[in-house]
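#dry-run=false #mode=assembly
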Amino acid sequence: MSQQDDGPGGTKPADPAVAGVTSSPSGASTADAPEAQAPGGAASLLSSSGHNNVPMALLNAVLEGSSAVVTILAIILAIIVGGLLIAFTSPPVLHAWSHVFSAPGAAFSQAWDVAASAYSSMFEGAIINPHTVTAAFHGGSTEAIFNPLSETAVNATPLILAGLAVALAFRAGMFNIGATGQFIGGAMIAGWIGFAVHLPMVIHVVVAVIGGFVGGAIVGWFVGDLKARTGAHEVIVTIMLNYVMEYLILFLLGLAVFRAAGSPNPISPPVMNNAMLPHLAGANLRINAGFLVALAAAVVIAWLLSRTTLGFELRTVGANQNAARAAGMSPERTWVKVMFICGGLAGLAGASVVLGTDFALTPQIYGTFGIDAITVALLGRAKPGGVVLAALLYGSLNAGSVTMQAATQIPVDIATVIQALIVLFVAAPPFVREVFHLRARRAGAEGQLLAKGWSS
Amino acid sequence: MTAISLVGEQRFSFDRQRVIATVFVLLGLVDIFVFGLYSNGDAVFTFTLTGAAVSVPNLVIAAAPVCYGLGALTVALGFVYAGIKLAKLPQRLLAGTVTLAFVVAFLCWSDAGRYPLPFVSLMQSTMLASIPLVLGALSGCLCERSGVINIAIEGQLLLGAFAGAVIASAFGSLWLGLLTGSLAGGLLAILLAVFAIRYMVDQIILGVVLNVFASGLTGYLYDQALVPYQNRLNSPATFTPIKIPVLGDIPIIGPIFFDSTVFLYITYAAVALVHIGLFKTRWGLRVRAVGEHPTAADTVGIRVLWTRYRNVIIGGLVAGIGGASLSIGSVGSFGKDMSSGQGYIALAAMIFGRWTPLGATGAALLFGFSVACANVLGTIGCPIPSDFLLMLPYVATIIAVAGFVGRSRAPKADGQPYVKS
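#status=ok
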């Protein structure tokens, strides 16, 4: 009986609650949760509490802090904290604070101004810039209006794919910290096919993208296989593989095969035109077919999760390994399959970057996508639709922060801080409720997010 | 129920003994057919630093025969391992011998016919590289023995490095920098503790998120404040090495172990304290009880949550010192993301070392050694790309997690929030 404690659905006091509450943050535990639940707790509350009064139900949702409300509040809270950080670290504000006794108003208004201008230029870089709209009326280009949105989509593309890679693993009860390594695996093969292999037009890009999937899938499969065979914890293996892959790409870029001819820097030859993901809206906007691939992947994963045997198996394994085993499923085989797909998705993210925006392999091509993917998956509550929305939010923060740095000299890293804070708060609903003085939920209704230890 | 747990027992029906034996034999074959066959000439090891009082003669060995010998020994040990069921201690001794033989053969091969290998400076940089790893791994031990998973070591190192550099630079006091670095690590640990214990956030996720947070925060502050005010805020001095009288004058051993900055001595003390604290005191017994079976610990009156808070925070303080060693120990400035994954290596070292301070220290030294090799072997013209040497700790960890460590379990309640019922 004590063996049971090892399993994710063991005999811990709070676990039954996890399985019972559909609005709990843990997507993996809600084996039969309908995808439609994602947009808001309001709907589920309507049906469950018997209130036919929509405003009343909404109010209840807000006061009780349903998952959607908590998410929104977490975002607001993170933006406030980020704003404070901006306000109290920028030189003009610090200067104003030094005169706080002679002119107290100036300090506060200066702080407000800096934070406000930072966020408004972030908005202009991510969604729409009013100046480009006015300019368009006076003979400017209309493309410029859509540039911010295009940038958001471009930034979101790898995040959607890598986020799905993490989310799918979550649903099967696994932590895929290794999106970075799988990303590199995908980028390496996609990039190599892109610059070294000669193929006709359409075929080339398709083959390269598939290569990206395979490259990532191999890395992911290795993790799953090792876990299934030896019980090696996937968190350790994936973290270690990240570094192995980082050094591997560094090593490969030192070889003649991968190095651009005559380049002093470790960078591969440029990807051929045939292998580039085609632009979707003209050559001036960076948005490319990779975005469509990402959206398609989200649809496929949603279908996989809700309509296929594998999806059912992986949700069952994620909800309770021992129950799955008792029902005749093989968690080991599921882990291998799931990690194969997860790796492939992260590999696609790598392909989308090397074939869509960077067009060459560099030692830093993996950026922070792998880690951001974890936060995206968490924010998206491990549901494909949620992942897409979360990735769009993060993509807009990333795109906007670049514009913000150009306009206000505030470092782009603020976006990372805000993103980390959002996830920190989303993962801790009781904290958000306390901050906003929301009513506590029914005792025991608070699920933990996939809480379990090292022993799988 | 019994049926299920029986299946659960059998699911890793993987013959570790045979696998490990195979690994040994393979390593032995590598010793012979790679290192031995491709070694030309003599390997020369120098043991004297310039300016040392006592000079030790260089060691000149014929590389190839030594590699053959070590390889043969390793293969033999592999067969012994496969054939005889050994107790734990001999098993570990065997594994240690095989590792040592492999390292020696590797060094012989990489130095054969090339410039002399400065053994003392290789070991010195091993120790230097190991300091943050050891302290980080100790932080992990302290946390996880009390039942809280600590993946935030990386963030603790980074914040420690940042705070150490800034305060040491701004106030011109290295000791103040060291203290603040430690406190900064503790601060992140408080976040970890509060969100893990009070708000019961999943601890693996929490650790990753806190690492991202630390990286974003320090990166932001670096660009915002440290770049414009480089002179005032980011040019700390570094601790100068303190040579311990008498011990520091012993040839070979002296310069490696007893002639370093205060960080190395703090590390010695920390290893000893954590080991004794966890395994020889009542305090440690209680901590481990909380990590293994919190309900039982609670029943006998141990304050579970308080123990966890305390341990997580002490761990953060320790890791913070390790972080400070990165910036004010040797480099003399803070750089963006300067912990560069060492927190994750420390985590690996802790797991490699089976959640024990001594084991973790051993693993951290091994990892530090491979980092030092990557730095030093490049200078003597070793043909192995440094990327592969840097990859080594990670590959070793994967092998260890898959083959060696699988049997040893994490503290039973590690990662599980405690709810009083």
